[in-house]
């Protein structure tokens, strides 16, 4: 039975979540579960005896860390950055920094210059990092970052060999020993104080620092704990890095507020091949009840032979971070005999928006239902790409959310300009549908949505149809530019080995199968291979670029063009760059006017490139 009560129909959020900050929430758990194990740490060698820490020891470590930071001059509003693998000390630093100041979790795999940029943007005054150890570069990066960011006044070392060349370095172990076990300051954070800044960013543009208030984190944690049915009887394996919001909130804080046990799967987590190889034996030895991870991690462990490991204590599997392949879900369910349920979240929403709740029947492919006090709507995009009217059940659109888990914005307020709708809902950037019961289904990203004369077309409709054809191995649908409709759907496919089918035959198959006329692809291209991302997904920007180049080359056929290139740029949309033939130098003005007139009506930015044949 879950430790977190179900909120009543008229209950306010403040009545349900009684804690005022993260430290308060963990202290409440400690008061009822002082001697119970909070963290089990499995070292790099899974065969080595694990180290266990009770809730009393967890709270002690957090309090001592907070006191140590205050003794070094850090105050509310200051920022403590950390570059750490998954250690027990990482938990102390994250929640201790949130209590004394604010935390900045950093991905230690970034280069020193990128980390320094994030530290400058956050205004970091202290940096905590793993000390010198063979095979790691974190300490060298930390020293480089401190040199690049003069505002960082203190460097705190966790573990490793002592760097005698750095007299300005503080050892966390020494600080913890000399700090009192009870909080030595009274200005504890309130619900709206900043607990942390988590960095996020897509494949383009500078990373953004997402503000996490204590209210945001606790709303996500309590909601995740309630939806997962977490209790003091649970044990969850956490193999995700502690700069990842899912690791910090759903796999850690949500379990702490419920009184569950968190098993840290070595400093490197799922990146440790020995952990993956011994995963099911670890599940057996620790009595794991909740198996969780991102799709790539669960896909790896699903391939591991359990070799008779007793998995009878597992009660549920959770997966989040991206769309979960059905085949992997089936493998996990066959191994554990328990359902796979999805968690949908984003950094801007405290890491948790929806969970497929254990209190309701599992629906494969559903991201579940919004956590308590969080609302989710699906809205259609207007012609300018702004979420407008609410969609009907089953109608695809962009997901928007609001609630206490939702961030107030980015640290750089200018970056928040397009984060919210005019009426205050956060724009997730994800495409999905709501069914009549309120369940959420995620199908893709807004940038992949095809908008035809204001009609929102989910490319998944086209792709799923074509994938049902016996000759099709893979499919991707994107929008081709159109002067009248804005975009028209087109499809790309690869064929299975030994099959032969024409583009016209596949278009006819789609016409007979797709019952939404605007979604019928106008054209179809058969390729030997689709462009793919590193994680095996169809790379839509390359397809949009390809179909745009094909289309504009046809529109401008006969014009004296030496080269035509298309790219996508944040804030500028589709950029069409044209280089005229060198022979057009004398009449280039008239030619450019004619080409611009032919492209009038398209949503694009036109650029002209200097002819390579002309002198500079």
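^ structure tokens above, recovered residues below v
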């Amino acid at each position: 039975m879950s430790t977190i009560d179900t909120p009543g129909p008229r209950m306010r959020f403040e009545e349900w979540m009684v804690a005022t900050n993260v430290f308060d929430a963990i202290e409440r758990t400690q008061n009822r579960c002082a001697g119970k194990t909070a963290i089990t740490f499995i070292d790099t060698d899974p065969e080595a005896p694990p180290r266990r820490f009770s809730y009393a020891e967890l709270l002690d470590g957090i309090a001592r860390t907070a006191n140590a930071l205050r003794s070094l001059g850090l105050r509310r509003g200051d920022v403590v950055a950390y570059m750490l693998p998954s250690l027990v000390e990482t938990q102390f630093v994250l929640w201790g920094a949130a209590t004394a100041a604010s935390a900045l979790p950093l991905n230690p795999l970034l280069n020193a210059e990128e980390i320094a940029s994030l530290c400058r943007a956050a205004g970091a005054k202290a940096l905590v990092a793993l000390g010198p150890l063979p095979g790691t570069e974190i300490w060298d990066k930390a020293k480089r970052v401190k040199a690049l960011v003069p505002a960082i006044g203190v460097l705190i070392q966790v573990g490793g060999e002592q760097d005698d060349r750095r007299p300005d370095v503080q050892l966390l172990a020494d600080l913890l020993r000399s700090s009192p076990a009870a909080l030595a300051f009274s200005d504890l954070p309130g619900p709206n104080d900043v607990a942390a800044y988590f960095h996020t960013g897509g494949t383009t543009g500078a990373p953004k620092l997402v503000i996490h208030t204590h209210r945001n984190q606790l709303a996500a944690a309590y909601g995740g704990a309630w939806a997962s049915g977490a209790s003091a009887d649970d044990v969850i394996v956490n193999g995700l890095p502690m700069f990842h919001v899912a690791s910090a909130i759903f796999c850690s804080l949500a379990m702490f507020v419920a009184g569950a046990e968190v098993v840290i799967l070595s400093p490197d987590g799922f990146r440790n091949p020995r952990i993956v190889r011994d995963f099911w034996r670890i599940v057996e030895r620790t009595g794991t009840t909740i198996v969780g991870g991102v799709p790539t991690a669960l896909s790896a462990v699903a391939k591991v032979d359990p070799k008779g490991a007793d998995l009878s204590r597992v009660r549920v599997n959770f997966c989040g971070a991206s769309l979960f392949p059905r085949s992997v879900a089936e493998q996990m369910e066959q191994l554990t005999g328990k359902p796979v349920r999805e968690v949908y979240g984003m950094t801007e929403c405290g890491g948790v928006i929806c969970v497929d709740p254990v209190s309701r029947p599992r629906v494969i492919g559903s991201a579940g239902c919004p956590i308590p006090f969080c609302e989710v709507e699906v809205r259609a995009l207007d012609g300018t790409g702004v979420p407008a009217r609410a969609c009907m059940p089953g109608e695809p659109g962009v997901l928007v959310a609001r609630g206490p888990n939702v961030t107030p914005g980015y640290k750089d307020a200018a970056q928040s300009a397009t984060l919210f709708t005019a009426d205050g809902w956060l724009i997730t950037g994800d495409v999905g549908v709501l069914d009549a019961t309120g369940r959420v289904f995620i199908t893709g990203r807004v940038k992949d949505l095809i908008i035809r004369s204001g009609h929102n077309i989910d490319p998944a409709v086209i792709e799923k149809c074509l994938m049902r054809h016996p000759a099709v191995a893979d499919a991707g649908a994107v929008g081709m530019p159109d002067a009248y409709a804005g975009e028209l759907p087109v499809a790309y496919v690869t064929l299975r080995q030994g099959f032969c089918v024409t583009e016209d035959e596949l278009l006819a198959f789609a016409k007979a199968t797709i019952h939404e006329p605007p979604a019928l692809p106008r054209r179809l291209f058969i390729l030997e291979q689709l462009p793919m991302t590193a994680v095996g997904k169809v790379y839509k920007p390359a397809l949009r670029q390809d179909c745009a180049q094909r289309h504009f080359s046809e529109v401008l056929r006969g014009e004296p063009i030496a080269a035509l290139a298309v790219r996508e740029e944040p804030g500028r949309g589709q950029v069409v760059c044209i280089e005229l033939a060198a022979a057009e130098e004398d009449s280039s003005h008239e030619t450019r006017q004619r080409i611009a007139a032919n492209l009038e009506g398209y949503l694009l930015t036109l650029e002209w490139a200097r002819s390579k044949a002309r002198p500079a």
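Residues 55-71 form the longest helix (17 residues).
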